[in-house]
Protein: TetR family transcriptional regulator
Organism: Nocardioides zeicaulis
Amino acid sequence: MAHRRSDVLAHAVALLDTHGLSALTMRRLGSELGVQPSAIYHHFASKQELLAAVADEILARGARPRTAVAWPDRLREVCTELRLAMLACTDGADVVATVWAFGLGAAGPVSELEKVLADAGAPADLAAVASRTLLHYVFGHAFEEQTARQAVSLGAVDRPLESLPDFDLGLDLVVDGLRARLA
Amino acid sequence: MAHRRSDVLAHAVALLDTHGLSALTMRRLGSELGVQPSAIYHHFASKQELLAAVADEILARGARPRTAVAWPDRLREVCTELRLAMLACTDGADVVATVWAFGLGAAGPVSELEKVLADAGAPADLAAVASRTLLHYVFGHAFEEQTARQAVSLGAVDRPLESLPDFDLGLDLVVDGLRARLA
């Protein structure tokens, strides 16, 4: 049976969400779709390319309307959307951060942060550093939150979760640093 | 053959550094040491407990003398030590961030950051948020840098690496945010 690329991608996201990143292999994906791995490679030339498409799909599904006007709020909007999109899929933070590190996808948030900062009058080098700093903060926070919640939920570890809701507070700290530079 | 806990731990770190996180299993560790997995479990009750000991060993090996006096420099010293310790071992950032998320180890850096901030006069709630923000930034940056360098070095991906040396610039941005709060 032939599958369209979009069907294979949708199944890959479902497989990731249900069984986690370690289960997301070309072999298993082919087996669940009733095709040879070569049929998967027809659509995605490599595991990295599949992961990149999965990361971009995770971000696309998390897209929310933009309503903020002031640049600090616009930055928060992008960072919050990114965080929630990753948290909405099992191992989403790991996948999106890995694909970003590979340079193969998940590039939307940084582009958008850079644009917000350029609009706010930041020089290009500050906009680049600040966008990457915000991204690294969001990745680091989301990775902890998701790993902790998943492990506790599986009964693998037993840790308190009440420190996790400090995402906005830490984000404000980075934004304050930026405000000092843009003043 | 009986092995001391420290021998098993040293071999686990060597296995991680040589073959990466996916190779670090209780079974493989036992096999390489010529013992049954049960002999490994005698020293480490679970895979999580082993990972926690490995993370703390990675941090211990990266320990450097403290010489800074002013609080921003003291924060930078702790963050830089953490970053370099993780980068010094294959998949070190992944292991340390995961163990921190599990709540099972790698707690030294946050404790030290909190102490530096308390000494600088930060209220406890700000010290807690700021320490976690710095940690998440360091984790996010180190994860990108390590994942990118390892993947490029293996020939798995081909991406430019020149954006990676911006660690200190991003750290300064967070420190500036903190400076604004402490002023």
Summary: The mean pLDDT of chain B is 95. The interface with chain A takes residues 48, 97-98, 100-104, 128-130, 132-133, 135-141, 143-145, 147-148, 151, 156-160, 163, 166, 169-170, 172-181 of chain B (CB under 8 Å). Chain B has two domains: 5-45, 66-182.
